Each structure stands twice: as C-alpha cells, then as structure tokens.
C-alpha cells in the first residue's frame, strides 16, 4: 500500500473508513449548547464595550461626556435586551434527555 507525503497510507476507494464512527448529536442539543455559549460570552462582550470609551481619550477631538454616557447606557440597554432574548430562547428550547445523557429521570 502506498502512502501520501505525510506518511499516512492511502485508503482504497470504495471502502468505508476504519475507526470509530463520528458521534451524531441532535440539532436541538447543538443549538442549546450554542445559546449557552453565547450567554457565557455576553458578559465579556459587555465588559469590552463598556471599556471602549477609555480609548476615546487618545482621539484628536475630545468626546463630550454626554455622548459617552449615552453610549454606556445604550450598551447597558442592549445587553439587557440581549440577555432577555437569550433567556427566552433557552427556556423555550428544552434539553434533550435520553438514555445516554445526564440529568435523566430517577
């Protein structure tokens, strides 16, 4: 059997790959995990957006305090709306509980 440049043998065409089959996860489970990841990343995004006005000091023109406060409260409102939307989506998507998952019935 010949090998590729990386030293791996070439698999003959028409034969199934050897090794374990890929794990298939339900679409609903993947969607819920991504919503949880987004929920965990939201505080970091908020922290970055709230600290962004500190970089405005190096600008050629100074930014009025009123614009900075409008920006900060706008970010705060946007974060509150985003969290509300994520919580709504998470409560609407129920976790899939099956024989192979944790949190099953007692």
Automatic annotation (TrEMBL):
<protein>
    <submittedName>
        <fullName>Uncharacterized protein</fullName>
    </submittedName>
</protein>
<feature type="transmembrane region" description="Helical">
    <location>
        <begin position="68"/>
        <end position="87"/>
    </location>
</feature>
<keyword id="KW-1133">Transmembrane helix</keyword>
<keyword id="KW-0812">Transmembrane</keyword>
<feature type="transmembrane region" description="Helical">
    <location>
        <begin position="35"/>
        <end position="56"/>
    </location>
</feature>
<feature type="region of interest" description="Disordered">
    <location>
        <begin position="1"/>
        <end position="24"/>
    </location>
</feature>
<keyword id="KW-0472">Membrane</keyword>
